[in-house]
Design goal:
The protein has 327 residues and is α/β, with parallel strands linked by helices. It has a single domain, classed as Luciferase-like domain (TIM Barrel, Alpha-Beta Barrel), CATH 3.20.20.30. It contains 11 helices and 9 strands. Strands 1-2-3-4-5-6-7-9 form an 8-stranded parallel β-barrel, surrounded by 8 helices. Strand 5, helix 6 and strand 6 form a beta-alpha-beta unit. The longest helix is centred in the last third of the chain and has 19 residues. It is globular, with a radius of gyration of 19 Å. The protein starts with a strand and ends with a helix. The model has no long low-confidence stretch (mean pLDDT 94).
Length: 327
């Protein structure tokens, strides 16, 4: 079976706080390391009551200090929010602290709404060429070289794999052009997945970092002893998604029995679309769903995510997935 990794948003649950969420993230990373997962990534989001990973590089430093072998990284850094030099320095610092373990995934979305984007002094002008320019500038800081007036210290000369993240065809084309690995956000925006994979593979140009296409796909997995228990666990993220889409972002709420049955058709459609690329159920159900997804997509790696209210249930879910495909 292909490698499995974990994407964690450091969810802040109802009744909890950011400190608890970050400690739970580090505990999950340790657990993932023991279970044999390849990577543990965190994502940049802003002004979200239920997500504690806004300062992604800082959160990764905390996770890195508590682990020893698993790769850690960003899935991703929203590059339009930052100067490329700053990100080169941040991830150069991480690579200096945890050598050979750092990944840098880059996205072009703001990871927030327009009000928070303005608060970050983000340039909201529409320029499809700015993101590619920023990616190239960032990679150039890692290359370093004599005679450059601006240098990323730490950063230059370090081998930090760069990934392109996306949920549309834009990222697929850019990753292919630059010869970089591509991570598609199928765990929440699956609509363009198959087209994006096809375009990336067809147009891929080998680079110094990568000689052939490499696709990692996001995938929700809620594993429990029974299908019924797993479906109950998944109602937390269902509530959070509906709250967010209707303009009321929230902390991650506790599970609710038969939640989907209480929704109007438009809200039900939102969660059905969100969970298109998901496995929810007993070990046998989850195994069959993951195998079918890999067969359909030809993914080179899966990035498993599970926003589960109870921390112990979240650990168990990820452990179950790892055990199903051990070896």
């Amino acid at each position: 079976m292909i490698p499995f990794s974990i994407l964690d948003l450091a969810p802040i649950v109802e009744g909890g706080d950011a400190r608890q969420a970050l400690h739970h993230a580090r505990d999950l990373a340790r657990h993932a390391e023991r279970c044999g997962y390849k990577r543990f990534w965190m994502a940049e989001h802003h002004s979200m009551p239920g997500i504690a990973s806004a300062a992604t590089a800082v959160a990764l430093a905390f996770v890195g200090e508590g682990t020893s072998t698993i790769r850690i990284g960003a899935g991703g850094i929203m590059l339009p929010n930052h100067a490329p030099l700053i990100i080169a320095e941040q991830f150069g610092t991480l690579e200096s602290l945890f050598p050979g373990r750092i990944d840098l995934g880059l996205g072009r979305a703001p990871g927030t709404d327009q009000a928070a984007a303005h608060a970050m002094r983000r340039n909201l002008a529409s320029d499809d060429n700015q993101f590619p320019r920023d990616v190239v500038e960032l990679m150039d800081y890692f290359k370093g070289g004599d005679g450059k007036r601006v240098r990323a210290i730490p950063g230059e000369g370090l081998d930090i794999p760069v990934w392109i993240l996306g949920s549309s065809l834009f990222g697929a084309q850019l990753a292919a052009m630059l010869g970089l690995p591509y991570a598609f956000a199928s765990h929440f925006a699956p609509a363009a997945m198959m087209d994006a994979i096809r375009i990336y593979r067809e147009r891929f140009q080998p680079s110094a970092q990568l000689d052939k296409p490499y696709v990692m796909l996001g995938f929700n997995a809620f594993a429990a002893d029974t299908d019924e228990e797993a479906r109950l666990l998944a109602t937390s993220v269902q509530q959070a998604v509906v709250n967010l889409r209707f303009g009321h972002p929230s902390k991650l709420p506790p599970p609710v029995e038969d939640y989907a049955e209480t929704l109007q058709p438009n809200a039900r459609a939102i969660i059905d679309n969100f969970l298109t690329c998901s496995a929810i159920g007993s070990p046998a159900t989850v195994k069959a769903a993951i195998e079918a997804f890999v067969a359909q997509t030809g993914a080179d790696e899966l990035m498993i995510t599970a926003q589960i209210y109870d921390h112990q249930a979240r650990l168990k879910s990820h452990e179950t997935v790892a055990e199903l495909f051990a070896g």
